[in-house]
Write a structure and sequence with these properties.
Largest sheet: 5 strands, antiparallel
CATH architecture of the largest domain: Sandwich
CATH class of the largest domain: Mainly Beta
Number of strands: 8
CATH topology of the largest domain: Jelly Rolls
Order of helices and strands: EEEEEEEHHEHHHHHHHHH
CATH superfamily of the largest domain: Regulatory protein AraC
Number of helices: 11
Length: 299
């Protein structure tokens, strides 16, 4: 087991002092997110959720997402991220590969109002997985003891996936529609941006197409998401570029840049390095090495 297979944190607490603490991001792993307390909006793609205590979100991870908690308030959550490629053979050996269906078929869904007993079980499993995962990272134990830890983490994750599967059958809440006018406009703006990433997008262009005042549009988007429209646009473009670099090795860096909406290769390379801390070519090579390593581990 390595850090790419599973990451687990239990009841992380932050007193939020800056919006920059939580940035848009994406990853290959599936994610189980449990909201404990605070005042937080959660953004996944073009959807905005106003979280309530004990809300659970399941995500495929590839969709751009971020928390937007209120400044000056305590924000508490638990998170499990895991590799589908790592856990799928385990589930197949147990003849229950369907346990991944919620992440594939109900991807990016929010569940609210579950039975208290089930929520307690889910939280307890997340707590135990996080504790074991921390032990694994800090251990100097023998190979046998490490394999015992890996086996226990795998067993607990399977139990957790059973609980999530049971929860998903109830379909308690699936991406609820936000009712406020401001959030509805922010949803429309985010969705329009994601559909036109390859275009030369300006604030005037968005405002004209959505028939909304440019200044009102800019203000409400920042109020709801914590990001300016152009910051969100660039995050979306970088996320698309990462996907193309990894999934389409046949495409040149220039093709990736243009298909992600960047004007030219120089602008793309400069901005990518600023945001990701490595060049596009280095990112592609790193992901290729990671893929090869996972293949070797799975044999």
């Amino acid at each position: 087991m390595n850090d790419g297979n599973i990451r687990a944190s239990y009841r992380i607490k932050n007193e939020v002092s800056s919006k920059d603490e939580f940035t848009y991001h994406s990853h290959e792993r599936y994610e189980i997110y449990y909201f404990h307390s605070g005042n937080c909006k959660y953004l996944i793609g073009d959807h905005i959720h106003y979280l309530q205590e004990n809300d659970i979100i399941i995500m495929n991870g590839l969709t751009l997402h971020r928390a937007n908690p209120e400044l000056g308030k305590l924000y508490e959550r638990s998170v499990i991220e895991f590799s589908a490629e790592w856990v799928r053979p385990i589930l197949c050996s147990l003849k229950v590969p369907e346990l991944l269906n919620p992440f594939q078929m109900l991807s990016n869904s929010l569940f609210r109002g579950g039975e208290k007993a089930r929520l307690v079980e889910i939280e307890d499993l997340m707590k135990r997985i996080a504790a074991l995962n921390a032990s694994y990272k800090n251990t100097n134990s023998s190979n046998f003891e490490i394999r015992l830890l890996e086996g226990e983490v795998s067993a607990l994750l399977v139990q957790l996936l059973f609980k999530i599967y049971e929860l998903s059958k109830l379909r308690l809440v699936k991406i609820p529609t936000v009712k406020s006018e401001k959030a509805s406009h922010a949803n429309r703006i985010a969705k329009w941006i994601e559909q036109h990433l390859e275009s030369n997008i300006t604030l005037d262009h968005i405002a004209d197409n959505l028939n909304i005042s440019k200044y009102y549009m800019s203000r409400i988007f920042k109020d709801v998401t914590g990001y300016t429209i152009m910051q969100y646009l660039m995050c979306c473009r970088i996320n698309r570029a990462k996907y193309l670099l990894e999934m389409h090795p046949e495409k040149s860096i220039l093709e990736v840049a243009l298909e992600s909406g960047f004007e030219n290769l120089s602008h793309f390379s400069r901005f990518f390095r600023k945001q990701v801390k490595i060049t596009p070519s280095e990112y592609r090579n790193l992901k290729a090495i990671d893929f090869q390593s996972r293949q070797i581990e799975s044999r």
